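User: These chains co-purify. Model them together.
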Amino acid sequence: MGILTLDNVSYNYRNRYQITYALKNVSCDFETGKIYAIIGKSGSGKTTMLSLLAGLDLPTTGDVLFNGESTAKLNRDRYRRDDVAVIYQSFNLLPLLTAVENVMYPIEMHGEKSKNARKQAEDMIESVGLPESIRNRYPTMMSGGEQQRVAIARALASNTRIILADEPTGNLDTENGRNVIKILKELAHDKKYCVIIVTHDNSIADESDVVYKMSDGVLTLEKEQ
Amino acid sequence: MIFKNSIKSIVRTPGKTTLFSMLIIIITAFMCLSVGIWGSSVQTLKEADERYKTIANIEYVGATYPDEIGMYDPNFAIAMKDFDYSVFENEEYVENIDRFEAFSGRIDDFVPNDKYKLDSPYANKLVLAFQMVTVYDYENAVPQGLEFCDNGYEDYVFYGLAKVINPIYTYKNAKKFDKGMVIRVFVPRVDIGDDPYHLNGNYAFTLENNCTYIANGEMNDTKSAPTFFIKPFTWGQDDRYETFYQTLAVSGYYWGHDADRNDYLPEYVRHLDTEELINKAHQSDFYFNESFEKAAKEYEEVNNSLRVYAVNDLNTVSKFEHKDYIIQEGREFTQEEYSSGKKSVIINNAVAKRLKVGIGDKITLRLRKGSEYWSMMEQSYTYGTGYLEEAEYEIVGIYKSTRIEEIDVYIPKAEWMDDTDPVISYNIANITLKNGTAEEYFAHIRDKLPEAMRISVYDGGYAQLAGTLNSMRETAVLISAICALSTVAILVLFAYMFIAKQKQSVRTMRILGTTKSETRRYLLIGVLVITVISACIGFGVGIFTSDEITDMVYQNALSKGGADLRYSDLYIGSTVEPESPRFETPILIMAYVALSIIALAIIFSLISARKILVQGREKRMTLSERMTALSRAFRQSFISIWRNGAKSFIVPMVSLVLVVFMVVFFGIQSGYLKQIDDIYKNANVMIYFTNYSGKLTTGLSIPATSINDIQESGFVSATHLMKSYKYIYKGVYKGDNETEFNVYDHELNELANPGRDEIKVITKSLVNSKLSDIMFIDSLQYNPERLNRAPLEVTYADGFDESMFLGNDNICIVPDLLMRRYELNYGDEIVLDSIKFQPSWIGRGSDIIPKGYGEYFFRIKIAGSYKSESGNMNIYAPLATGNRLFQYAAGWSSQYANYNVEWFETAEVKMKHTDEWTGEEFEYSVFVPAYSSAMFELNDNREINKFKDKLDELGYSSDLRQVRYIAINDGGLASSVNNISKHVDYMNTLSPVIYALTVIIGFVSSYLLTRTRKAELAVMRSLGSGKIKTFIMFFFEQMILCLIGSALGVIIGIIIYGTLTSMQIIAVLGYFVCYAVGCMIAVSIMNRVNVLKILSTREH
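Assistant: Joint model of the two components:
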């Protein structure tokens, strides 16, 4: 069993017009040291699956297991704080905090003092290839690529083993996108993270170790290295 | 970390933070101030209610009114016989009923100086013992004393010079009549003959040189030589001159006669002084007329009298109430002193100074009793039964006079005083009313009072103050309500902007693993910091400015709030400016307000935080589900209205509520305006001249120029004047200038010829009490004498009606009593003798009538009669008739050239009259001296306050101590109108606020609702819909919703209110327009946002 497991997970939600079955009996395993890609069309259920993996929601049926333990039984705030980091297409940086403060946020949440947290954050920012000048900028003053790298730095600062990325290159140009994937690959292969990327971009799938295809809520294995 | 990040979140949004901080400071300050003012005004009103007293003074306006201690008034006695005082009682309004007794009295050893001496007919009286030293030889000497011939002493002749042996009594302790002084002596003479200045012989009696006499008389010290007129105690009735002078000694022998008037010469007494002579006279059979001693004693007592009032509550005495008298040392009477009638006394500081006494000292006070017939103060000493009481009183208080120069004495009323027959006072009762109930009380008892009983109220300015404070309170309540609503709105918006708008950050924080409580803390810390700091500043601003703002609101309310009671007849003499109250800043209340605002901000923030923290996965609304008819803007509006579900109800609900409110609001306002119109239309406002107490409406002396003042003010539409004269009925005219005297002409004779042992002085008061009036008026309906009384029940002879008073024929209506008494018929021509007083000064005092002056006989025909009540014997005749008749009478006024000229002012008074048949308007003028009364009608009751301003400008005042008084019988018009006007004022103040709020609500609701569909709008634009189409779509959608809500609101408003006036229609249309304006602005702003920017932002 991997670090994260989906065990026959189904998920549906209701809006005014209909019931949508986002996931249908999905089962799969995710291990550390690998980079996973989940590809599919828009509306296929990819983001839903990521949300379940991130502990943002609970499946309608089935279980999401982290280290064999169901997320339904875990404190999901703690889970998101200590065990999993999420990177979004729209970056989701805290708009009123600077780049370094954004990265400091999860560090301080773990009880680190400000001074140490700042040092660590600065190192993180540097590790993702951002210059020193970026540190005190607000998100609105950064480019998309810079914001996404700050988001990655923040994810790394969480000190978790799992990184979930929802269309991480969606708002980036080709070069920045490649850089981000490169970082994620390094994290997976070199630092033994479990990196799960949700994307519709087949080129990212080509870079991944395992590729799942999501179609109408059904997950099928496409490639495994 | 959470705290730090929270602080960062507010510091790094300076614009929003500053804006809301300012807003919270402002609303906190306003709320603190308005609630503070509310609290202050309520508290101050409560204190005022305890501090002020409202005293209703009931007086009988009798024949000698306003003389407080007047003659015996038979009409008064009839009115008061069996009068039931319980008519004044009323639990709802009355706190206490007080009746005090008035006496005249003397304080032992106290002789008031000239300033304080009461009016007395014994002014200038003398009782002297003198010795003749020179008798003039009139054959050869130059006549002297001619200067007195025209001044009331025509019947006197200069006799000679005398030396004062003993000034037994001299008024004012005149030095010129001291012992040893040489004086000129005048004696009365008889048989004046044709030549009034003939000085030879015919003296009433002779005085011999070297003879000593004792005599009663008067002094005249206008000339350098003191002059003594020997005068009888009575006038011309008893020709036995030994009644007022007596020979004491002749050439060294004392002269006397026994009781049988036989003269004898007992002993030589060359060097004896008067006292020894008198003692000698007492020791033998010598008849000594003790009247001199009695007279001297009476003059002494009467001329040095003081008014003594026995009271149950000093504070109900108007002079203390009006602060004319203020306790300077000591205290008022205690309850124990009142209930036990203890011998305590409060005196004037001038008396205390003269007597050299102080608190705790004792003085001897003698109280005199009147008799039924001779109750006048001046005469009560001799012809009553002497003193009622002579006792020692302890001084417990000393007062000073602030304005009125009188030295009254006050004692607690004792039980025994109820059984006496004291000097009569027209003061019936002083009633302490519950503050603010004077008008209701007046309405309650007005019809129960006898005809001549009048009421005036003094409240020290309470009504004015209470009205102002109530106005303040209502303003404060209104502002508090508006502030409270604004506070809620601002705090909701504050919560939205600082909490709800951080939804994205909250989501991110939650994703990053921040717990809900940490996230909640993050959100609330910022809110709390802003709110606490701002509220504290607002509270501080409120405290700091409270005094000035409260005073400003008070002054504003003073100018607008409170009924304009100037000249109101009920409050005549009492519309004083109240003391400016001291407002205490209610710090505690204001602190509670500030804390409440903080609490409210936290509550709203918590609600908002809860909403965003519990939000589950957001619904994913695809654009395609909503976009079905892009090119059809209107269809899309309906679809969007339908599919928006609950959100679509917001605008109609808001519109419905607002429109219902406006329909009702403006409906009430137009209702109030109509009420005010009706009040003005139906009010019967009469303006009239009066005296200082506001109770006298006739018997005044109003110069024609004063009447012209009012007529020419531009506010009056009609003037009603009256002249009145005292009359004596003489009989029926039989033609050929013969009058059939079918009754003895006893009235004036009775006045002029009192009984032998009585000292009687003919005064104006006496005549007033005995004689009735002939009143020359132009309208029975507008007769000032009948103000607030039922009209006369008149029966006219054939061919006559009320229009007779507009003519100038010699016709009149008489009381049925007169008709019966003298067996008169309609058509009889009666002869009346009118009495006119020798004027000394206007309005007060007693005048002596020398017989033969001021009489004018005229004939007048009876054209009707009226039912006489309470012995009313007044006759009514046309004003023009009086003007005509008494113009001829003016001739005898010339001899009074030296007297008060005002009485003879003959300014032209223009009168207007419209012939009711032809409609012709004509003017006529009257030239007569002062009028007894004058009454006016207003052109337009709505201008009453402007008219009052004009009166102020002309120098009139309803303040107690002004000379000319005007009262307005407005029947509570001012209060009624004011009560409603205040509401109208508030509504007028609110109206623009309401419209402004409507614009804001329209804008805000449109903006917020359209904003949520920003993406929708962006896609429509990106698909090719132009700005105008998208504008129409959203604008139309909003206006449909507003229209639906407004229509429902109008229907509900009509159901509630009943009618739809033009004001309401305008208001609703105004609301619709304002909402449309707000909506247009909101949608226009939305329409200008960058489409790409919207489309490139995705929300999860």
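The two ends of chain B are 26 Å apart (CA to CA).
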